Structure of Propionyl-CoA--succinate CoA transferase:
Amino acid sequence: MSDRIANAMLRGKVMSAEEAAQFIDNGDKVGMSGFTGAAYPKALPTAIANRAKEAQAKGDSYKIDVFTGASTAPDCDGVMAEAGAINYRMPYQSDPTMRNAINAGEIKYQDIHLSHSGQQVEYGFFGPNLDVAIVEVTRITEDGHLIPSSGVGNNVDFLDSAKKIIIEVNEWQSLELEGMADIYRIQHLPNRTPVPIINSGDRIGKTFIDIDLSKVVAIVETNTPDRNAPFKPVDETSQKIAGHFISFLEGEVAGGRLTYDNYIMQSGVGNVPNAVMAGLLDSKFEKIEAYTEVIQDGMVDLIDAGKMTVASATSFSLSPEYAEKMNQEAKRYRESIILRPQQVSNHPEVIRRVGLISSNGMIEADIYGNINSTHVAGSRIMNGIGGSGDFTRNARVSTFISPSDAKGGDISAIVPFASHIDHTEHDAMVIITEYGVADLRGLAPRDRVAKTIAVAHPDYRPLLEEYVERANKGRFLQTPHDLSTAFSFHERFLANGSMKQA
Amino acid sequence: MSDRIANAMLRGKVMSAEEAAQFIDNGDKVGMSGFTGAAYPKALPTAIANRAKEAQAKGDSYKIDVFTGASTAPDCDGVMAEAGAINYRMPYQSDPTMRNAINAGEIKYQDIHLSHSGQQVEYGFFGPNLDVAIVEVTRITEDGHLIPSSGVGNNVDFLDSAKKIIIEVNEWQSLELEGMADIYRIQHLPNRTPVPIINSGDRIGKTFIDIDLSKVVAIVETNTPDRNAPFKPVDETSQKIAGHFISFLEGEVAGGRLTYDNYIMQSGVGNVPNAVMAGLLDSKFEKIEAYTEVIQDGMVDLIDAGKMTVASATSFSLSPEYAEKMNQEAKRYRESIILRPQQVSNHPEVIRRVGLISSNGMIEADIYGNINSTHVAGSRIMNGIGGSGDFTRNARVSTFISPSDAKGGDISAIVPFASHIDHTEHDAMVIITEYGVADLRGLAPRDRVAKTIAVAHPDYRPLLEEYVERANKGRFLQTPHDLSTAFSFHERFLANGSMKQA
C-alpha cells in the first residue's frame, strides 16, 4: 500500500475501484473532481461504466447524475457516456462521445457558469445533498487532510455536500504539488464575508482540504497520468490574431487605460491563446499576472522567462511535455502558481476587483456583438460556457478572439443574429479575428455593425452587408433586424453544409 | 439666495440655468444625476434644449452626449430629446419622446448594466474625462460638501470625472434627507479592496459627496418636484402573479433553502412588484431586507408595518403621495433606508454575498429560459436592461415575473426564441406568470420546455407545442430549434399586429 495514505483509519478503507463502485447506486448524484483534463478520478469512472453495462445486461437500470469541476477525459466522461451510465451532467464537458450522446438526446446536460456550479449544490438546487463525492488527491496526511492533485475545481463543495466520500490517491501526481493549492471555503449563506483577495497572488487559505472522515467509504490507489492533450503548433491565423490582440493591449497603454506592468490576464484554452502568450514573450509587457481558470503551457513559458510573476487558476491544462515538467519541478513552480477552488478562481467579486482583461474563444458573434460560445446552429452543443461568463461579465475589458471562419470557410464567425447567446451585447466589448480588432466599447448597436463586419471573413462581408441593408429598412432602428432572414446563414449551413450562398 | 448654499465661494457661483448652460458646449459629454425619475436636474435640461433650438435656428449644430444614473423624466430626457439636443445616451432611459427618437435612429443609445456604467466612465471608455457633471443636491455644506437629494446614482463617478461641475440646489427636496445617503467611493484600479458590506443595512461611507470645488462653474437654484408617477391599482393578473411568487418563496422555505426571517428582496419597478409587496404584508415573512436599486411605495408600507427592517437602494421611485410622505418624514425613514452610489447598490460582489432573491420584469422569455428585457420584436427598444443583469447574474435565486401576454393578447410573453437576449439560459432560474411558476433550476434545456409552456397564456400553448414538435425533428437535441420558424411569433406580430395565427 502506498505511503501516500498516512491516516491509519483511511488505510483501512483501501479497496479496488470495482469494490468502491458498489457504494454508488442507481440514480445517485455524484460529484467528481476534474477540471479540463486534470485531477479527474482515473479508476472509478470505468468501474461505474462496467456496473452500468452489467445492469443493462440484466435488463436493469443504472444511471447516475455527474457533477464535476469542468471537462474531464475519455477515461472519465468518455467511458461513462459510452456505457450509457449518465442521466444528467453539469456544468461543462468536452468529450466527443459524451457530446454526441448529449446531442442525441441521451444525456441531459445543463451548462452552468463555473462559478455558480458549486454554489448551486450548496444552495440545494439538486436536493439537500449529493450522494457521493469522488475526488482525486496526491496524498492524504496523517490527520486525514486531502492534498489536491493537479486541480481543485468544485472539490470542496462536493466533499462538504456528499453523504459518502471516495478518494482516489494517484501516485502519478507529484508529491511536490503540496503547497500549490490555496483552499479557501466560501462561507455558506447567510454568513458570507468578503473574499480577501486583493492581488492575484494572495494566498488566503490552507494547503489541504479538511473533510468529515466519517463519510469516507473507500480509498482507491491509482497511478495514471492526467489527459494532457498536445497543443498544435501555432498557425498563421492564430499568429495574426495574437498580433492584433497585443496591438490592442498596446492601444490600451497608449490610451492611458493600462500600463506595461499592469496587465492581468484571463485566458481561455486553445491555439489562439497559446499564440497570444507566445507573442507576449516578445512584448513590452512585464510583471504580467494571470487570474484565470487553467494554467497553460504559455503561462509556464512566461513564468520561466520572468515575464509573468504569478498565475492563479483552479487547474492545469498542459501538454504532456509540460505536465511532465510540472511534475518534476512543482516545488519551483508553486512559488508562482496558485490553484484555488473554482468558486474563488472564477468569483465575480475578485474578477472585478483585480481588473483583469478577459480573452475567450467563441463560435460566433453577431453584428451587434452578442456572442455564441456553445452551440452550432443553435441546437448542437459543443462544450459549454465554462468560465467565460464569469470573466466576461466582470472583466475590466472583455475580449473574444477567434478565426473569422471555420470548417474550411463554410462557417462564418460573424453572423446576422447569433443562434445561441451566451454573452449579451451588454457584456462583450472587443472582438478580434485575423482581420483585426472590433472595439465595440462606447458604441450604440448600429455603430457596432461596421466594426464587426470589418473583422468578418471577406467572403462573408457582402452577405452581412446585404442583411444590414435589409434590416435597416425596418421600422425600428435601435437594433435593426430582419427577423425572417436573421438565421439565413445558419439555415444555409444546415441545408447545404455551408453558410455561403448556394 | 437660499441658505441651502452654506459655502461662501459657491454662493458666488449662483446664476440662472440659462447662464449655466453656456458652460456646456456642442459635443460635450455630460454626466447628469437622476435615477428613475428622482434627483435629476430640473432646470439645466430645459436650458440645454433651448440652446439646441437656438443653434438649430441659426443652422448650427448643438448636440451633447448624456450620461445619467438611469431614467429621468419628461422635463429632462423628454425636453432634450424633443429639441434634438442629444447625440448619444447611456445607460438607461424610459421617456416616450426619447424612446421614439432612439427607435427612429435619431439618438444613439447604449444600454449598459447600471453597475458597469460609472465604472466605464472611470475606465476611460468615453475618453479620459467627462466634460460637465450636472448634479442635483438638497444642500451644500459650509465645506462645500454635497448632500444628495432623492437619489445618488452615478453622481460620484461623474463629479470625479468631469472637468466642470454645475450643481442644482433643489429646495423641494427635504433637508432631512441628509443622513440617508451612504457615500462610499469604489477605489480606482489597481487599488481596489473589498466593498465592506456584509449585511444589507451596513453603512460604510459618508453622508455627503466631497468634490474638487475648483471645478464648480455654476450653482442653480430650483424648487421643483421629482417626477413621481402614480402606480396603477393592483389588478387581478398582478395579484395572481404575486400569489404565485409568494407561494414560490414558501416552497423555498419548505425545501430548506430559505427561512421566514431571511428573505432579502431585490425588485424591479411596476405593478406586479407592488402587488408582491402588498402580498408580503400578509405573509409569514418577517425581518425582510431589500438590497435593491429603488425604494418603492410597497417597501415603505413594509417598513411601516414592521415587516421590513432595512431597504438599501440608490434612489427613490415613489408615487406623488409617498414622495410627499418621504419628504415629511425623511428623518424617521432614514433609520431604515440607505441610498448608495449605484456601483454599490448594484455591485456583483455585494449582491452575491448577501444572497438575495432577484425579481424583475421582462418582455418575453423563450421556451429554454432566455430572457428579453429590452426589445420588442428584436429591434424596438423599450427602456433598457437597467440593473436586472447585475441582480439576475449574482442572485441566490433569479426570478422573472410578468403577465403571460400583452397588448390585449396580441403578444405572448413566452416565445420559441427570444428576439433579443439580455439574460441567458445560464442566468434565469424561475419564470412566473399568472398561470404559475416555471422553476428551471437543475434542468437541462429540453426539460425546461414543459415548464415554460405551462406558464404561457393558454391561447399560445398549442403554437408553442407545434414549434417544439418541429424543433425536436432536428438532428441535434441539446437545444432543439427550427431556425426557419424560430421567430414566427414575431414575424406574425410585425405583419398582422398579433402573434396569434392569422
